[in-house]
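Human: If only I could read backbone structure tokens as easily as an amino acid sequence. Take your time, and here it is.
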Amino acid sequence: QVQLVESGGGLVQPGESLRLTCVASGDIIKVGLMAWFRQPPGKQRELVANITPGGKVAYGLPVKGRTTISRDNAKNSMSLQMNSLKPEDTAIYYCNAGVMPYYSIREDDYWGQGTQVTVTS
């Protein structure tokens, strides 16, 4: 059973930093594109950043310049370093990945359960 698990969320003050991680586990052949999405209270889900297996990255405008996405293909993991956090960064952050299980020839789309990030003074 393929599973994505996020961690690292919490309650922080504006200007502080958090590092979110996502780990894909199970009988996995490979993990393709990985991405972080977030859903602020009462708002639509939005892309935070994504990263290809080769390390090509893209950032959403709200976090561009203060966020770094990275991955470790050997560990099937991904991280999101968020600096200079703002109250508007408050959201549930979700890990998303295309994962190829050992029994499949294709990548399927998987989501984590989400981790809460709250930025308040």
